[in-house]
Amino acid sequence: MTKPSYEVPTWNKIHRMLHNQAERICKSSFKPQIILGISRGGLIPARVLSDLLENSNLAIVWLESLQVVDGDKRPQMLVQALSIDVAGKKVLIVDDVADTGRSLITVKQHVLQNGAEETRIATLYFKPWSELKPEYYEKETGRWIIFPWDMKENVRRIIKDKATLSAKEISGLPNKLIRKLLNFGMEKTNCENK
């Protein structure tokens, strides 16, 4: 079994990536009228792109993966549909990563079915096995990405997946960061203590 490899971008790196992406979008022929963030991972990138592109028409959709029965596909269920009318509009769909691509495909279909004139997709990362390649992405990687906004969730997953957590088992996470994640990222909040 291959050991997982992780990438842990900082807030500053993400902002630089989004700045580069905004520059490329501005230089392209596509001028989005609506920026649509996919909840949860796409919310922060969509908000930052909204600021960088000086476009306050920000909307969201929310998807959840359904239970996998056959172990093969993870069907997507739209929990919250479009929060804004997209008919006749150019829509930039934003998520943090194109992993399987299924969420992006589902949202793109939903947006087009609601009458959007044109859609384009922007992600920070693109995985080579994704079923959909975004028009705009900053980095291709096969690594698991731990974003600042989902650090605690990922540390829980890593600990759950491993009987013991050692730096040698987890490539891509430096010892100092593992200690920081365990000491800081895993502290209980008031919400968890109830």
CATH class of the largest domain, anyone?
Alpha Beta
Kindly state the number of beta strands. Answer: 8
Kindly report the spatial arrangement of strands forming the biggest sheet. Answer: 4-3-2-5-6-7
**What CATH architecture of the largest domain do you see?**
3-Layer(aba) Sandwich
Mean model confidence by pLDDT: 81
Overall SS class: alpha/beta
Q: Could you say what the CATH topology of the largest domain is called?
A: Rossmann fold
CA radius of gyration is 18 Å
Helix content: 25-40%
Tally of discrete structural domains:
2
Helix count from the secondary structure assignment: 5
Q: Distance N terminus to C terminus?
A: 38 Å
Describe the sheet with the most strands. 6 strands, mixed
Q: Report the uncertain regions.
A: none
Task: Give, in order, the helices and strands.
Answer: EHEHEEEHEEEHH
Overall shape? globular
